Amino acid sequence: MPIGFATIDWWIVGIYVVFAALPGFLCRKYIRGQADFLVAGRTLSIWLATATLTATEMGLVTVMYWAEFGYTSGFSAMVIGLIALSATLFVGLTGFMVRGLRASGATTVAEYYEQRYTTGVRLLGGFIIALAGILNYGVFLQIEATFVRIITGMPETITITASTPGAEPWHVPTVNLVMTVLLAIVLAYTLLGGMVSVALTDYIQFIILTLGIGGATYWVFRHSGIGGLEGMVEAVEEHRPGYGFNPFIRGVNEQGKAILGVGVLWILWQSMHWLGTNTWQTQAFRTAATDSPRTARAMWILTAFNYFGRGVIPMIWGVGALAFLSATSAPEALKSVHTVEAMPIFLAHLPAGLLGFLTAGMLAALMSTHSSYLLAWSGVLTEDLAGPIVKSLTGREISQSWRVRITRLFILLIGVFLLCWGLWFQVPATVWGYLAMTGTIYIAGALPLVAFGLYWKRANRTGAYVGLIGGAAPGIIYLFLRIATLIVEPAVKDAGHAPQHLIARWSADLTDALTGVISFPLALVGMIAGSLWAERRRQRATAMHPGTALPGGEG
Amino acid sequence: MSWVTFWQWVIILALTTYFGLAVVIAIGGFFGVKKMFRRLNEAHLRATGAEGLGPGMQEGATGREGEGESETER
Q1: Could you tell me if A533 lies within 8 Å of chain B, comparing CB atoms?
Q2: How far apart are CA A372 and CA A99, in angstroms?
Q3: What would the CATH number be for the domain defined by A7-424?
Q4: CA–CA gap between residue A158 and residue A506 (Å, rounded)
Q5: What sections of A40-139 are H helices per DSSP?
């Protein structure tokens, strides 16, 4: 069977891209201010809010990293789906944080920091949120372009012959071209309509995405080269022995280092991460966009099951890719496959028509994710950094129309960053490891700040500062070491390269799971200790100088 | 129960809940889109109605003279 795109697949994708751009044009008249642009005027009902949240969080990059995780860790990877289900269900059933956040009326998490603590906390929080969010987002295009290149059957490089005689031909990596085209499409339609068009297209994309995923999953189970679930079990037994089934143990590689599988450290980190993941700005926007706190809770109950499925289904594809490649490739060839490329290599064998439909579904996933992420991070930069800074300097609020303009400018700047970062940076281990770790820089601090802010009266400004810094510091050190390693020892990009430089060895030792496990307790202890210390200081000051009050947020 | 059986049940549960909910969300979301546009239309009509009062009326209402300043107040 030929692999790659047939004519019908190109037609399906082409029609979809044109169709998806329409809502952006049609919805422009509804954008009258920042509330319309960022949270659709807070008009989303339970079902629409769930559809948009699912479409946003089920991005092409999501499918890629979960499939990679399934490919590297076998069935054990699915424990993350169970953790996501349990943690999100707990949030939905109890209303933990989401109820209070929605009732506060805050649009961004950092805005809540200002309501509960001080403007300074909002500025620091906004900076950490934007930094972590944009760094996290920075690898999306790179991973997605890899999928599009492989699934469509494009070559790795395109040679452009110079018109001048004797000039060297120019070899351009196809991934770079695909990244540029994808970015142009996403920017165009996000800039036009804001959250109103995002909500509408998310709904359409949710349907296309679900159909594409359904068709592909059916094909994976029915593929003769895999042998259904039994074939997958056999492949995992052969290539991921033990740790491919038991998530509490880790495998050992040729050098004797335990780097394969999930493990207890990972499970602990992920449990803390998923409990606070509703504070992630793209998700907090959906909470803010619901029409009431009750709708917010219901949305999170439904989303719990979607998170479960969105984790487990791509992992099935990843395990399927392992079974397929082990059946069709020589053992040495199997070892040389880049883990993130295994799933698209496998799915490129889908029959014509279904391949186009799946790719349209994946593009749908990509567009809904990008539009929401662009809105989220540009919204944070405008509302939590530019707004408070301008107000402190001039004493005036930025007007609504200028807020929309500034947000659009930030969207463009983030787009440029995406392209540059995607071309240069390479994730250290698995894609999910990097994404969860950059997410932890933000979530580790946000979890105690929001939770204690809502449920602990003694939480105060000092505790908030210490909590934010404690949550972000380990992740920033991790990233600093990685960036420094890429500069001093670029060969770390090569598979199987053993780090030589001291910084490269430190970077290898400070794993994503270790960073994550340190971050959450550090933020929690920092929040409690900082708050209690400031309170004691205030009490002592009051006892010594009755009538003296400390600045706002300290009590 | 062996790990294989356990993961089989996890897969069945994930597929059932994800696609089952997708049907419900697709139907409910359709009415949600209609409701969102109805609300936004009402807000849009209210806003354009206010603009229809004319610049003099708006200035009188806000106490401002320039458009930039009235936006600042909003």
Answers
A1: no
A2: 21
A3: 1.20.1730.10
A4: 38
A5: 46-57, 60-73, 79-94, 98-104, 109-116, 119-137
| Beta-sheet pairing, A170-173 with A250-251 | unpaired
A51 touches chain B (CB under 8 A): yes
Q: Say if residue A225's pLDDT is above 60.
A: yes
State the Rg of chain A over Cα: 24
Residues A321 and A67: beta-carbon distance below 8 Å: yes
- Cβ contact, residue pair B36, A196, below 8 Å: yes
Six token digits for residue A245: 């089934």
Per the CB < 8 A criterion, the answer to whether A383 and A37 are in contact is no
Angle at A491 between CA A168 and CA A422, to 5 degrees: 70
A29-43, A292-306, A334-348: least confident range:
A29-43
pTM of the model: 0.80
Residue B10, chain A, CB below 8 Å: the answer is yes
Return the structure tokens found at A465.
């500062």
Interface list for A 465-524 with B (CB within 8 A): none
Instruction: State pLDDT tens for residues A127-163.
Output: 998 889 888 888 888 888 888 888 888 888 888 776 6
Return d(Cα A229, Cα A473) in angstroms, integer.
43
**Residue at token pair 């356990």:** B6
Amino acid A94: pLDDT? 93
> Which of chain A's residues have a Cβ under 8 Å away from the Cβ of B35?
43, 45, 48
* Nearest-neighbour CA in chain B from A52: distance (Å): 9
Q: CB–CB of B40 and A54 under 8 A?
A: no
Can you give the pLDDT at residue A509?
82
| Cβ contact A461:A516 at 8 Å | no
Contacts of B14 in chain A (CB under 8 A): 78, 81, 308-309, 311-313
What are the domain boundaries of chain A?
7-424, 428-555
Predicted pLDDT at B55: 41
Q: For residue A194, what pLDDT band results from cuts at 50, 70 and 90?
A: low
Whether residue A50 lies within 8 A of chain B, CB to CB, comes out as yes
Closest Cα in chain B to A317 = B11
- Token readout for A77 is 């990877």
Q: Which helix (H) or strand (E) holds A146?
A: helix A140-152
Count, in order, helices (H) and strands (E) of chain A: 23, 4
- What is the model's pLDDT at position A554? 54
Helix, coil or strand: residue A260:
strand
Of A229-243, A420-434, A511-525, the one with minimum mean pLDDT is A420-434
Return the minimum-mean-pLDDT range out of A85-99, A154-168, A218-232, A272-286.
Answer: A154-168
- pLDDT tens sequence across A465-518: 999 999 999 999 998 998 888 888 877 766 667 778 888 888 888 888 889 899
Three-state DSSP at A158 gives strand
